[in-house]
Amino acid sequence: MWGGRFAEGPDAIMQAINASIGFDRRLYAQDIAGSRAHAAMLAAQGILTDSDAQSIREGLLTVLSEIEAGQFPFRVELEDIHLNVESRLTEIIGEAGKRLHTGRSRNDQVAVDFRLWVRDQCDAAISGLTALMRAFVAQAEAGADWVMPGFTHLQTAQPVTWGHHMMAYVEMLARDRSRFADARARMNECPLGAAALAGTSFPIDRHRTAAELGFDRPTANSLDSVADRDFALEFLSAAAICAMHLSRFAEELVIWSSAQFRFVRLSDRWTTGSSIMPQKKNPDAAELLRAKLGRILGANVALFTVMKGLPLTYSKDMQEDKEQVFDAADSLMLALAAMTGMVGDMTANREVLAAAAGAGFSTATDLADWLVRALGLPFREAHHVTGALVALAEAKGCDLDELSLSEMTSVHPGITQEVYSVLGVENSVRSRMSYGGTAPDRVREQVARWKTLLG
Ligand code: ARG
Predict the structure, then answer these.
(1) Exposed/middle/buried for 50, CB within 10 Å: 0-12, 13-18, 19+?
(2) Predicted confidence band of residue 7 (pLDDT cuts 50, 70, 90)
(3) Which value does ipTM take for this structure?
(4) Which atom number of ligand 1 is nearest to the Cα of residue 322?
(5) How far is the C-alpha of 431 from the C-alpha of 309, rounded, in Å?
(6) What's the predicted TM-score (pTM) here?
(7) Strand ranges (E), 39-174
(8) Ligand 1 pocket test: which of 15, 77, 80, 118 has the largest number of ligand atoms within 8 Å of its C-beta?
(9) Does a cis peptide bond (omega within 30 degrees of 0) precede residue 305?
């Protein structure tokens, strides 16, 4: 492609380090779409003849079908997908193929190809997230009023509802969805036509190619166009936050499915057995989901490190962007699909959840609140009295509602029989009616809201 200036071919190791065709072949569809838009624009502007544009269009379709049929002769000496496609096109259609690269460079070509690819991945992430949100909403709807312990510090804090816990993930995933949508909107500008870095002297129409490729507009600065990989970094950042959310629920599943907790039963479809211990049912999918953030965040750090301090504009360093993003995107899509399957299949163990909900003095806050309401104690004092009652119950090895009234009044004389009504977990969750609270009615409102939003 540039033989004019060179007397010798590259060293074999140079070829190995330089070539990207081993991985950037994944961009073939985007590369061909970009070339088709470019050729059509060149013809519309009178830069190419209609007949050249016509044979380029047909030739590119042939190349596309060869690649999709697995019959394309990829050549490592042609470095990357861009040169492979162009060279094969020229083999097929002759002279006209050599005119395609007018007013364009591989620098803007790779920028547009990769943006198109990452844009598709944003769409895939959004639909994967939507499916997962639906699975969580279905769990929440089934168990809007099932009580379970809510935790802070992984210590029993207050009773909550299963539905409320499930809906917490819907909120997180909704933020993830909007991050991908934001990133998509911001990346939706077309760098094609920036050429190598400075623009071109040919009378190209960048608005036309931008529109044809579904972009909102062309990018405004040619230097920025070929130097920018923010779109990839934003995708990786949104992916990392999303994977962090998945890892948190994965961790909960690992804990909850243990013999010590038994909060949930994972289906056979999402677990594995042990080759030696016959009783085992291991939450492998959850564990792998917990780990995926490692890879995805790793990709993010890798690309930041590649981009850091690169002078404008394009440097070959930037070829190191693709494998990271490919791997992170593959990992994320697989993780979303696996989590959706697992959440859809898991069964909450309602009785165990209910028993655990009442353990660990989980209604102590309700007791303190009652002292404030019924006896007019300042909250700090009510907190102190309740603490003394918990200590008494702990010393006796019983729960709060198993203390007798005289034991209660020995700590505070004003306590009456009525106190026992607030010590039950059902009453406790029902009373948490503040907006966003765990009361089953509140949860049902959120379920209804999300069912409408998710369609
Ligand atoms: N394979 C290259 C990449 O992925 C394409 C752009 C190459 N441009 C260049 N001037 N060498 O970044």
Answers:
(1) exposed
(2) confident
(3) 0.97
(4) 4
(5) 56
(6) 0.94
(7) 147-152, 155-161
(8) 80
(9) no
